[in-house]
């Protein structure tokens, strides 16, 4: 063995402090092996004599609580002449389960009563029928046959009876407000199609555009377009058209020139065409009768008000001859759609709706309808210390995989995170383990294959049936579309698979994905309405579903009061140790990932398994520079995103109250924020020369302020 086989061990800090049972390993680098052996013996000897080995105390970063248990690790380097050279690196190998902040939410003040069976509140109404609501025969057959839709939901019953009954040009503007997953899309599409199909005049794609439908995200616009296309299949002469950012404008223009009867799109692209593509104005000018603004509150929140006003100004400028299509309304009917009512929606309502009728399938409170989650949705809340977020997510995903025994179905889980970078980091951590994966769709879909040692429950599977996805606004449109299609795929090949999607709020609104069983909000949403829409991806159209929200101990616990009104049926408060980590890590053996072969020892100590699992991830981050850069980027972006919570909720999400060192641990980082901020700055380009000297914490906060100004968000149109 060569003399200089450089081994690197961290410093042992065996202090016999009563409450400090933690050890770290010691690494000795360089020099002759005899010197190293002598040093090691000396250290171990002194440890045995319980003499305090001098540890190098790093001045804790101002952001760090002066935590006696958090010691810096140091490396001891032995020079050729046997002299020691101790240099402090900034890594902290802190225990997962010590020095975590007190959790004050012991009592669940909104307990869900499991003894009461909650019937689904957004399911189709067994006692009603589409015929009775005036849907035409051809459309009915198509609904039942091709779309397997038999009965109307409550909101569809309300809207259909309103829009189909008023044929005398009394069509009023509508505000459709109903729970997520209650079928609002078909609630406005079916009456529009029905009215067009009832016309004596035979129409086709050249007859002009009857409806303009605007949505805040490309994904939602694409989804509405696909539902409209499905409905249009009942009469091949009606053609929808999709106008969204990220797609080629040239092909959109070509489609517009051929003619279409419905235009679905995102605000920016629609306005762009209205201003620059003459043919679209010809499409609208004589035939436009409906303007639908889906997810109206999000349109407002994203500052689309000006764009929407501009679109409406142009379409209101047309002077159609209403006698051309007498069975259609003799004015442009505006329809606003949302599961949540916000002042913004009202503002948009004032811009778009005149003297509108509010149709909601909920009892309206005096001032406004209270948005609520579907009754059958089971909400769980876990107060998780920052250091334990990553390993608790692993345990939560494991619990779903363990319970997933119906291998004749496809299981889907969505994990909402604060920004693109954290999605990328978690996607890498969970989907790539020593290369045991195959890229299925570009780099946004990966299937765990044999031997993957990522999650505890997968170590026992010969062929873990897990496919990981990532979806966020920084991906190309093609990747986003292909990823969603793959995630939504539901056929023989997907039976028995557990599909897990790490995503940002780009996937929170309106997306109707085939049965999503669980929604995990690892990062709380940026506004309470987003919470409702995120968890609304599950428990749709009467199906069951559950949601899990992670909150940090301390200020974030107050957020429960903020969202309580969305959950009149209550929620379950789960303990991260007893209910998540112990069941997940007790039953399996998690081996250190620097072993070649898994050991078959079973120690059953869930906390040591959880710690080993987390150290495995930390080790991967240490050894893989790409993953480390991703982890640092994710951590700093997470902090920036954290600062963009709406002002009214910032008392719960105050970046100054976060233990940044502990939070860094949930990104498998051992380095403290100060050096991370420096690294973050280094990566992001040099600081201005001669700028005032800032601590790491100040830098972090400055970046957070920057983000608030840039109001960077996942929605691009
Ligand atoms: N009458 C019906 N019977 C059965 N399923 C229906 C019916 N109407 C809609 N659905 C299904 O319910 C799901 C949810 O529909 P949709 O996406 O329109 O809900 P939504 O109210 O718009 O939800 P969100 O508020 O999240 O946008 C879709 O899969 C749709 O196919």
UniProtKB/TrEMBL annotation:
Its main location: nucleus. This is ATP-dependent RNA helicase. Belongs to the DEAD box helicase family. Residues 53-70, 685-700 have a biased composition (Basic and acidic residues). GO terms for biological process: rRNA processing. GO terms for cellular component: nucleolus. Transmembrane segments: none annotated. Residues 41-71, 674-700 are annotated as: Disordered. The keyword Repeat does not apply. The Q motif is unique to and characteristic of the DEAD box family of RNA helicases and controls ATP binding and hydrolysis. It comes from Zygosaccharomyces bailii (strain CLIB 213 / ATCC 58445 / CBS 680 / BCRC 21525 / NBRC 1098 / NCYC 1416 / NRRL Y-2227). It holds the Pfam family DEAD. One of its GO terms (molecular function) is ATP binding. It is found in: Nucleus, Nucleolus. Gene3D superfamilies: P-loop containing nucleotide triphosphate hydrolases. SMART domains: DEXDc (SM00487), DUF4217 (SM01178), HELICc (SM00490). The keyword Iron-sulfur does not apply. It comes from the Eukaryota.
